[in-house]
């Protein structure tokens, strides 16, 4: 009796739907690129972590750089949600103070939910190049564009100190991202990093106390 093709197939990794395999590759690439860095991560590692054949990386993405760019594109769609805060509804400084507090809280929640965002921002901002340019266009610039009107309004209403709004946006992004990217800097001085809920609340309080009047 002739064996079917399925029976003849050598044991190994299970066959996956192509889109499932693509998703697993993106998840593994996100984890490895963000924690180990682009240069230190091999395509073989990514394929092994995703439990798929390495040939599928070329099939779905082409090159290592194209896979990295696909990771950043996916991440931008996850973290850069259009916020539902309404500047037009702000009537006075009390309204603005509450809105900015909620905006800062949302930034903290996002960085805890997507630690890879902070890792990419900190790791790839060290020097300029193709990866930084791509990261800037898909993550940093959109974050700036979303935040800018709120920061300017906060300064105009006196809720934020009179300062350069561009500098403040970069300061907010870097201060929150740095804590998520390098918690080992804080952990020798405070045990708060062991309790995620407490840590989040501490950062939220610090942002309000240091930036909002």
UniProtKB/TrEMBL annotation:
DNA-binding region in chain numbering: 42-61
Domain HTH tetR-type: start-end pairs: 19-79
Coiled coil (UniProt feature): none
GO molecular function terms attached to this record: DNA-binding transcription factor activity; transcription cis-regulatory region binding
Alphabetic keyword roster: DNA-binding
UniProt entry tagged with the keyword DNA-binding: yes
Protein's name according to its UniProt entry: HTH tetR-type domain-containing protein
Species annotation: Rossellomorea aquimaris
């Amino acid at each position: 009796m002739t064996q079917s093709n399925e029976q003849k197939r050598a044991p190994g990794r299970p066959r996956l739907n192509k889109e499932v395999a693509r998703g697993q590759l993106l998840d593994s690439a996100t984890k490895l690129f963000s924690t180990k860095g682009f240069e230190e991560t091999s395509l073989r590692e990514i394929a092994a972590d995703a439990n798929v054949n390495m040939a599928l990386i070329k099939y779905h993405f082409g090159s290592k750089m194209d896979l990295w760019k696909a990771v950043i594109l996916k991440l931008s769609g996850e973290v850069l949600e259009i916020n539902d805060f309404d500047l037009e509804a702000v009537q006075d400084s009390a309204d603005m103070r509450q809105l900015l507090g909620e905006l800062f809280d949302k930034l903290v929640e996002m960085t805890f939910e997507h630690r890879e965002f902070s890792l990419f921002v900190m790791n790839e901002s060290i020097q300029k190049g193709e990866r930084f340019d791509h990261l800037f266009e898909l993550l940093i610039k959109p974050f700036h564009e979303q935040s800018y009107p709120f920061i300017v309004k906060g300064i105009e209403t006196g809720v934020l100190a009179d300062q350069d709004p561009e500098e403040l946006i970069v300061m907010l992004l870097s201060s929150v991202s740095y804590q998520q990217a390098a918690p080992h800097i804080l952990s020798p001085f405070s045990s708060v990093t062991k309790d995620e809920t407490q840590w989040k609340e501490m950062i939220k309080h610090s942002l309000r106390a240091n930036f909002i009047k």
